[in-house]
């Protein structure tokens, strides 16, 4: 079976399991909601101000929610010795990685779609710039977080304090992507600047790190 | 063997103290006073060489990690571990001396410009590398750390470029033109000497830390052997 | 008297003195830490070798060739 076929099969399995239990999506949603509410205590913005800070708030909320999703990425596999089975099978490891990454990507994107109307309501958000640009930034940014996050989740499987290890090693590396996402979102919402550079930078970031992840995943999988 | 172990430590301590002493003396007594900033500028003679050694160490870590992934030799992993730690130490001095210089000269401890922020992020990345090494269990530490090191190093130019762009959009206070703008020859001599001395000091630290890493690794496998042979 | 003359020659300011003091502390402290750990490793190794030499270990005599 080809890489893509295996990836697709693994992905469908994960999605089906998630659809049945809705574990990940529920905890992510609740967490993001909490973050939004707590932040609202700190800021009581007018519509104008809210456009300035919303970019940062939105991405902090999504970042924390993404970490919740990422932490459970490999948990199921670990519990049932699936990783060992995978190592022994002739299936290409990248298929597993792609499946996991795309699965996480879909989870977080679904979360973002659910949260977006809430942000509009809570912060009276209305975008000055074109919304399609926001979507592009969201997709590129989410991939940036998720691709490194899925890889680092694999790195931290057998570490002590696994749940804190993942954000600890993920955040510093993700800083340029986070900066790009936040500033691009703010630029689009306020209409004050063009997000073009950030979109290009996020695209480069995505390509570079996806390539590195694909190159190194097999090594990491076999090391576990 | 006991006596040679006893002789070795004092030599390195004496050597490093000598290096620190000479570099401090040159920086604080010999170098001319800077016209605009005054004597506080002398921090520069420790600040920049520390940074140079830190970046050199991080580069060594990158190369050693890549070599490890390719060849799986204990030596390259030990060098990776050693260079990350030594690099963090020098980077810490960089991050402390910087604000101590900035505060009296530019009135602020810190600014989020491209250079400083990238340095801080660099420090964060390699500290998280060290945490990953410490917290991961036995066998796979080396591979995982090496993989992470690749990510970290590749990220650095990206970090720098994105913050630089961010700062052209949202300017913040900038501290100082390049330190090398108009360096008086007497200052250049002291600076270059300190640069060389610090590099030497960094090498000493690196070699010692590498040796320590190798012996700790050897000890661990000896312990494993002992366990196998049923020693209490 | 010598110390004062020496210090005067040194062109110190509060901030630069702090910076240099911290640098010395960090570098020498780190060096000390490495050396202490090296001593510990050597001691542990000696201890282990003593245990091996004393013959308290079980050896595989009749196992697979």
What does this protein structure show overall?
The complex is a heterotrimer of chains A (224), B (232) and C (65). Chain A has helices at 3-21, 23-42, 47-71, 75-79, 82-88, 93-122, 131-155, 162-190, 196-223. Chain A is an all-alpha fold and 224 residues long. Chain A has one domain (3-221). Chain A is globular. Chain B has a domain at 45-171 and 205-229. Chain B is built from six helices and no strands. Chain B has helices at residues 2-30, 44-71, 74-106, 114-135, 141-169, 185-228. In chain B, α1 runs antiparallel to α6 (185-228) and α3 packs antiparallel against α4 (114-135). The relative contact order of chain B is 0.14. Chain C contains two helices and no strands. The model of chain C has no long low-confidence stretch (mean pLDDT 81). Chain C has helices at 2-9, 14-53. Chains in contact: A-B, B-C. Chains B and C meet through α1, α2, α3 and α6 of B and α2 of C.
Quick overview:
The complex is a heterotrimer of chains A (224), B (232) and C (65). Chain A is mostly helical. Helices cover 84% and strands 0% of the residues of chain A.
How would you classify the helix and strand content of chain B by structural class?
mainly alpha
Question: Which chains make the largest contact?
Answer: B-C, 47 and 35 residues
Number of helices of chain B: 6
Overall SS class of chain C: mainly alpha
Percent of residues in beta strands of chain C: under 5%
Overall spatial form of chain B: globular
Give a count of the beta strands of chain C, DSSP E runs of length 2 or more.
Answer: 0
- Give the proportion of residues in helices of chain C: over 70%
Q: What is the oligomeric state here?
A: heterotrimer
Largest sheet of chain C: none
What is the strand tally of chain B? 0
Uncertain stretches of chain B: none
Query: What is the succession of H and E elements of chain B?
Result: HHHHHH
The main β sheet of chain B shows up as: none
The overall pLDDT average of chain C reads 81
How widely separated are the two ends of chain B? 26 Å
Q: In one word, what is the shape of chain C?
A: rod-shaped
Terminus-to-terminus distance of chain C: 78 Å
Low-confidence blocks of residues of chain C: none
Radius of gyration of chain B: 21 Å
């Amino acid at each position: 079976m080809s890489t893509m076929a295996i990836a697709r099969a693994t992905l469908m399995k994960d999605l089906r399991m998630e659809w049945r239990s809705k574990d990940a999506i529920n905890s992510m949603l609740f967490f993001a909601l909490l973050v939004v509410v707590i932040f609202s205590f700190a800021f009581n913005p007018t519509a104008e101000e809210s456009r300035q800070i919303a970019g940062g708030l939105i991405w902090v909320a999504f970042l924390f929610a993404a970490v919740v999703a990422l932490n459970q990425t490999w948990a199921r596999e670990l519990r049932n010795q699936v990783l060992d089975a995978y190592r022994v099978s002739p299936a290409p490891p990248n298929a597993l990685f792609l499946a996991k990454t795309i699965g996480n990507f879909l989870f977080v994107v679904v979360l973002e779609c659910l949260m977006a109307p809430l942000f509009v309501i809570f912060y009276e958000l209305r975008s000055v710039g074109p919304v399609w640009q926001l979507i592009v930034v969201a997709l590129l940014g989410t991939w940036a977080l998720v691709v490194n996050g899925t890889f680092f989740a694999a790195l931290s499987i057998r570490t002590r304090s696994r749940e804190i290890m993942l954000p600890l090693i993920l955040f510093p590396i993700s800083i340029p992507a986070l900066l790009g996402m936040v500033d691009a979102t703010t630029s689009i919402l306020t209409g004050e600047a063009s997000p073009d550079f950030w979109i290009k930078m996020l695209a480069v970031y995505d390509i570079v790190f996806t390539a590195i992840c694909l190159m190194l995943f097999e090594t990491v999988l076999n090391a576990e | 063997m006991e006596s040679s172990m006893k002789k070795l430590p004092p030599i390195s301590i004496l050597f490093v103290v000598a290096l620190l002493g000479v570099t401090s003396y040159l920086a604080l007594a010999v170098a001319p006073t800077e016209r605009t900033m005054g004597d506080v500028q002398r921090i520069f003679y420790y600040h920049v060489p520390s940074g140079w050694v830190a970046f050199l160490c991080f580069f060594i870590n990158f190369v050693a990690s890549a070599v490890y992934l390719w060849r799986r030799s204990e030596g390259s992993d030990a060098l990776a571990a050693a260079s990350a730690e030594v690099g963090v130490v020098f980077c810490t001095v960089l991050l402390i001396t910087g604000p101590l210089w900035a505060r009296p000269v530019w009135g602020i401890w810190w600014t989020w410009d491209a250079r400083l922020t990238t340095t801080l992020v660099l420090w964060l990345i390699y500290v998280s590398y060290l945490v990953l090494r410490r917290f991961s269990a036995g066998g796979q530490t080396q591979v995982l750390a090496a993989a992470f090191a690749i990510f970290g190093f590749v990220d650095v130019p990206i970090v720098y470029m994105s913050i630089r762009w961010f700062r052209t959009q949202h300017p913040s206070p900038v501290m100082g033109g390049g330190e090398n703008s108009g360096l008086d020859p007497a200052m250049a001599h002291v600076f270059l000497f300190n640069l060389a001395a610090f590099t030497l000091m960094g090498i000493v630290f690196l070699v010692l830390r590498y040796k320590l890493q190798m012996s700790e690794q050897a000890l661990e496998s000896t312990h494993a052997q002992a366990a196998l042979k049923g020693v209490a | 008297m010598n110390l004062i003359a020496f210090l005067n020659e040194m062109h110190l300011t509060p901030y630069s003195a702090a910076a240099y003091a911290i640098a010395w502390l960090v570098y020498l402290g780190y060096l000390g830490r490495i050396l202490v750990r090296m001593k510990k490793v050597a001691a542990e190794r000696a201890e282990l070798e003593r245990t091996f030499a004393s013959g308290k270990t079980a050896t595989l005599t009749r196992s697979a060739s």
